[in-house]
Amino acid sequence: MKRLLAAEIKRFNFLKINDPSPAWWTMFICKGNENDTYTNITLPVLMRDIIPSLDKNVFLVESACKSNPSYRAWCSVESYTRENPNADVWYVMTSPIVNNTDTLPGRLLDHYPNLHFVLADLDLIFNGTVLEEFFKSGRWHKNTPWPVIQLSDLLRVVLTWRFGGFYSDTDTVCIKNVSPLENSVVTSHSRRDHISNGVFHFKHHHEFLTMVMSTMIQYYHPRSWGSMGPSTFNSCVQRSCNLKRLRDLFPTNSSDPVTCGNLTVLPEYYLLPYPWNQFRKIFEPGKWNDFVETHTKTYSIHAYGKVNKGMLVRIGSNSIYEGAARTFCPLSYFHASANNTAFR
After folding, report:
1. Number of domains observed in the structure of the chain
2. How does the average pLDDT of the chain come out, rounded?
3. Global model pTM greater than 0.85
4. CATH number for the domain that contains residue 54
C-alpha cells in the first residue's frame, strides 16, 4: 500500500473546498453544502494519494456526501477495524472532509493504525472497469428515486473487484474477525432464497464480481429498488451454482456453508442473524447475553438502517446492539453515550 502522512486536521469552510470544481456526479448525490465552519479532517483521495494493497482489505462506503456520519456508522467502522487488525479498513466517502468537531474521527485514526478515511474519485475508481461506460453515461442517476442507493450498489462492487477484500454496509457491528470468510456471499432470509449485497468477500478480479458487474448493467431498472443489488446477486449465484431456485442450494436442515466452485454461500446466521422484519429484536433490552451464548458462529450483526431509523440505542439497556457497541466499538460508544441516555 502506498503510504502517506496522517490526514491533516484544520479549520476551513466546506464551501471553499467544494465550489471551485466539484465533480459532475456530486450534483446527483449531494443535497447541499455545509456552511458552518468546523474542525475537519481533509481526506486523501483513493487511488491518487493512497492505494490499497490487494485482498487484505475491509471496505465501508458513505455514498451520500455526509461529512458527519452517525454514531452507528462510526461504530461499524470501528468494530471492523478493531476485530480485523491485520486488514486495512477503508471508509470510502463522497465528502472531501470529515467533521471532527466531537473529536471521534480523529481519535479513531490515532487509535487504529489500520484505519483509513478516503475520498472517492469516482471517475478514477470506475475507469478501466466493466462499469466505466455505465457510470459515465449517468444512467444510474436518471429517472430514479434512489441515485445514492444505485451509486452505492455500484461502488461497493467495483472497489472489491479492484482491490479485493470484505465489504460491509455501515448499519452493522462486527463481532468477530472476518478473514475466514473468503469469496463468499450470504443468504438474507431464513428461507435462503435471497442473497444479500450488504456484506460479502471476494479476492480482487474475482470472476463472480466480473459477472456481477456485467449483470448489473443488464438488470438495471431505475425504478426497481435493488435491481443492481440483491436482484443481481440472486441471478449471479443461481448461474454460478447452476440452480433454478436459490432455495434448492442448501440441503434440508443444513446449517453449513455451500460451495459452488470458487464461491461460498453462507447461511444467514453468519452475517445476518435476524431478517429485516425482525430488526426490533436487536434493540430489545436485556438480550445481549443470550445472543452471545446462542450465536457463536455469527461474525456481524446487521441492524437494517433503512427501516430502523426511529429506533434508539438505550445506554445501559444491554440490548443486542447496545451490548455489541459497548464491546466492539468502545470509542464510538464512549462518544455516543457521553451526556446522553440514548443515541441513533
Report:
1. 1
2. 91
3. yes
4. 3.90.550
